[in-house]
Known about the structure:
alpha/beta, D-Maltodextrin-Binding Protein, domain 2, 2 domains, eight-stranded mixed sheet, three-stranded parallel sheet, 18 helices, 13 strands, 38% helix, globular, maltose binding, ABC transporter substrate-binding protein, SBP, transport, signal
Amino acid sequence: MKKMKKSLIAGAVILGLTALTACGGNSSSTDVENWEEWEGTITVWDGPRWDDADENKFHWIEEKAAEFEEKYPGVDINIVQQPWAELGDSLSVAIAGKTWPDIAPIDISGGTISLNHIEEGVIEQTDDLFTAEEWEDFYPNAIEAYEHNGNIYGVPTSISVQTLLLNLDIFEEKGVEPPVDGRWTYDEFVEKMIALTDGDVYGFSTYIMPGYYEAWPFLFMDGGYPLNDDLTEYTFDAPEAVSGLQKLVDLKFEHGAAPVEMGSADVGGTFQAFAALNQRTVAVQPWATWAISSLQSEEYEMNFMVAEYPIGDLGEPVTFGGVGGYVMFHQEDEAKKKMVGEFLKLVSSTDEQYVMAQNYGTFPARISTADMDPFADNPGMAAAQELSDQVIPIPRHPEWARIDEVIQSQLQLAANGEKTPQEALEDARSEVERIMGN
């Protein structure tokens, strides 16, 4: 079994890939009929997932690469380790330099396929990767997240929803009852967050940064949404959205139930304040379901429960969700394209989605995997799965990444007290309209 090549720093990889064209580097040209004889390098980007005994969070994709290399001895899989928060920027740099990878992941934390990448022709269709019967094994909403103009781009491997995670030890210590069946109104939520706040412990906190949406269900709870139904107008400065953002920042500035750090872009610091054994200074935080498996690990071993976001004027709880997976970038060599597709099929198989569901805190995108009941012994994940029908999707606007960055920067200003919620959401309008061409 050959030793796998990998790089820890994506930027260095990008700079070093000047010889790696959109075709994926040096490779032998092979007729597509004889694709199994193709030889060369397949470059795969991936983000950290669950760790092994050596604290290696890339062991799963490395094991799949080694398995694939053993089956196809002429193929080298080059794994490029990518921090999730830097994935989008790294891809933009790679695409601008025409040094994109052969395969890249879609971040499950609210990510979606890039319509810009599709329209630029740098993402391959994957309709023919599976038969029609095989595609029927994928949940329709998972496929929908990877569809554009009737074609499929990429392969969904996992589904996630965002939930509120409650440290039950803090609830017990403060004499606060958790919400019955995980459901509460906003007023009930505020009352409990205030009761949980004492000394160095706060009831609630979250972070805000482009591409991540843990805070956004608060903006939706009264009926707000960033764009209108046909994605032609900015609507996040409507009273319903302003009201939702006001309710979020009130936790910090009016009720004193959130720390000064709430609303920063410090993802790791936010999670550690909640989960680290030597911290645990926050009782409730919203996270995607990957955090459930993390809290169940030996590193954290938290006594926690899953709850819904509080109910606002809509009268029902809402949340955000994402569909993780992989996309294939443009290939010039049809034989290589077939080989890249085979690796995609390996990492998206029924069995591999079962492994991911059990270890990474995600729901499978395949029906056959769900039928294997991966959460039979995991009540936390089973509870989170019940929230899947509350999911509000991310707008599928071609320029969503740029729109999102504008909105998130204004949300940070509101969360830091530099602007009122109304000022922040109104100030986003002109730049969003410019991006949308209005």
